[in-house]
Design a protein that fits this description.
about 30% strand, 5-stranded mixed beta sheet, alpha/beta, about 35% helix
Length: about 100
């Protein structure tokens, strides 16, 4: 299951291990295409990657901190450090290729 994070919980949730955060908004068409892909990956996950999502309209501080100007943006972090960023819609295969570089 994809965990919803906020400005208040983001740092704690991403400080260890590999995380993928989906930055999205309700009004964003491509975000609505991306969400089911992330949901499926989360369901299929063996726990190696933590899947998170953050609504940028409700949590502007974190998006601003990372300079996120376009959504969907997928932020890959390892032990709290950004190791990859994907902007726009990406297929499960594309995302898996990126994640495999960091696990």
């Amino acid at each position: 299951m994809v965990k919803v994070v906020t400005d208040a919980t983001f740092e704690e949730e991403t400080k260890s291990g590999v995380t993928l955060t989906d930055f999205w908004a309700e009004w964003c068409g491509p975000c609505k295409m991306q969400s089911p892909v992330i949901e499926q990956m989360s369901e299929d996950s063996d726990g190696t990657v933590e899947y998170l999502k953050m609504d940028v309209d409700e949590n502007p501080e974190t998006a601003r901190h990372f300079g996120i100007m376009s959504i969907p943006t997928l932020l890959v972090q390892k032990d709290g450090e950004v190791v990859d960023t994907l902007i726009g819609y990406h297929s499960q295969e594309q995302i898996e290729q990126v994640l495999n570089n960091h696990i």
